[in-house]
Request: fold
Amino acid sequence: MTHAEATARAEFLRSELHRHNRLYYVEAMPVISDKEFDMLLRELQDIEAKHPDLLTEDSPTQRVGGAPIEGFTQIRHTVPMMSLDNTYSEEELTAFFVRLQKGLGREKIDCVIEPKVDGVAITIRYENGVFKHGATRGDGQTGDDVTANLKTIKSLPLRLPKNGPQTFEVRGEVFMPRAVFDKLNKEREEAGEQLFANPRNTTAGALKQLDSKITARRQLDLVFYGIADATDMEVQSQEDMYALLDHAGLRKADLIWRADSAEGLLKAIRELDERRRSLPYETDGAVIKVNAFEDQRQLGVTSKAPRWAIAYKYQPEQAETKLIAIDIQVGRTGALTPVARLEPVLVSGSTVSNATLHNFEEIERKDIRIGDIVIIEKAGEIIPAVVSVKKELRSGEETRLSPPTHCPGCGSRVSKTPGEVVLRCTNPECPEQLVRRLEFLAGRSALDIAELGGIVAEALVKKGLVKHPLGVFDLTLEQLSNLNLGSEAEPRVFGRKNAEKVISALDSARKLPLHRWIFGLGIYEVGSSTAKELAKHHASISELISSPLLRDVVLESELEERRLDCSPQTNKNKSRSLEERNLLKEQEASIRSELNAVQQRLVGCGFARYSKAEAGSPDKKQRKITTPIGPVAAKAVLDFFSSSEGGETLRRMEGLGINPLSGPQKAGLNGPLAGKTFVLTGTLESMSREQAGERIGQQGGSVTGSVSKKTSFVVAGRDPGANKIEGARNHAVPILDEKAFLEMIGEPEPAAQPAPKTIKEDLFG
Reply:
């Protein structure tokens, strides 16, 4: 076959495979057998293997997933992805319709009613008939670029029919079909693996895989419900949008109702409740939307949700089953959590065998006993919870579970912090805690070492190879290669290839920025956003140890509490004698003076600001301040570094030569890259793409997932994406090789790792 013949044949095969995908997955009217489809696909794969230049991004062969990526870049939504207001009440739904009538000034309001698919919200863009990119909701303004994973969804057209709209953006919901979820859990149960909790969480996990081959195996699907950008098309209503979806081969809701009265809405949601169990996906409610887009524009939106739509949530389904045991799990902070083990029961379309009991006070309050017949429900149809006990069915053989006095993992005594209900293991060397802490340190938001999760972490601790989370940095290639993840009877060795990945990832982790390390240390009360705020105002770990900022935050809170305690204006002090109140007034004045000084220090260094409502308050009234980190988190950080556990962590970090820095301080909008937008493609030798994005962000720039005329630079590493390079050339966007990029951000070029000449000649020559 000549190259010209191969080109023509590949184009024909792609067209045919796209057509058959649509007939099978969207229209449910296949015209060829699975075997015939596979033969066409295999022929296209052979042609693309022999002629790599014929491989296109929209090729059906790409649905199996591509090479793993370093991390997710961000895509800014053309139109914000808003959430919906919710209601569980038919009365509130009627009140919603009355608001529509008032807002539009008429009695009849044409509405559409759809199932509320319990999945992951997504936005997808097509340009010139080709699937361009897709992103998650994120914060509503920007989301993660999950284009590679969306390509694995077989019902999603990668190329649109040529006789219809070619450029637009649609919104939808990615889900895992019930049948796929049940099959997946059955396979995991047979393999002795932990079952997935529910389809929605499993969908979210699959969609956020860095390796799209794993996503492809999850067999996700999606359904579309809205349009975000269709300025060049005659789309004036939800009804028009449904027609567009049909024409484009994009799946819409399986059930759709129309109603123009409150009575009609109620009838529709009741009918949906009766039929939703037959749908291939989980649903937890109905979505009601005004049909006409002009009516939607007239009704407008609030700061977080449209006024023209609402989600009606069905009451959680309940089920009755027997509580056969209560297990106690130990978390990374030592928290002991009781978990109910149940006789398996079907609730809201999935089998439930475990349910959280929250804490031991909850067990006592509900008088839950082992052997009880209990009522469970899925809160929000997601989290199984024990609602109540059928005490009238007790036989007398049920047993109470007393709160433990010792940790089930290490036998150490447990304690309860004043003001908390959680029991905690007090032993920082508890093996159960150590496993969880090691998993946390290796997590994506911390050091991002995927190979150190679950079974591997447990094996390292069990074999005594790791006695502190940072002990992983002392592991040798030989120790990791020979690590047995199975039993002595049935060994399963970790292997050299996996071991090399871990060693390489640990080496890269040493260079990660401060906020990733702060988060990874697992300090109580410190989440990722708090870690980032701490890194903004501290250059290194050593600055955090005795941070004057954090000490002032704690002191400010304590002084305010003391001031209120002795204020003569409080109810408890108003009944005191005049002499006592005058004395209290003097004490308050002294505390107020010290408090004002602390507040001025915090505001003066930019760590706090006066609350707007108090900004103009007279001196006689105590002013209020707000800080990005509260007193509880501030105290937790100081307590951690002053504890024996924190001291050991600092000693180990120093011994390992790990000294993470926060990078350029407070660059923000005034940084050297302020206003610059970058697109990253290919593999960089000196850092991962996620690390490159962090460097850019630290200097005021931003990173997007696709090239446009607004892009400032494209950074091209080894094996860059052809489409991004072509896009850069089409939009006259400068292309930086790794050396030029490192010079721009002030980083040294990696020694003895020059960029391959063939790539430089091809891209920049």
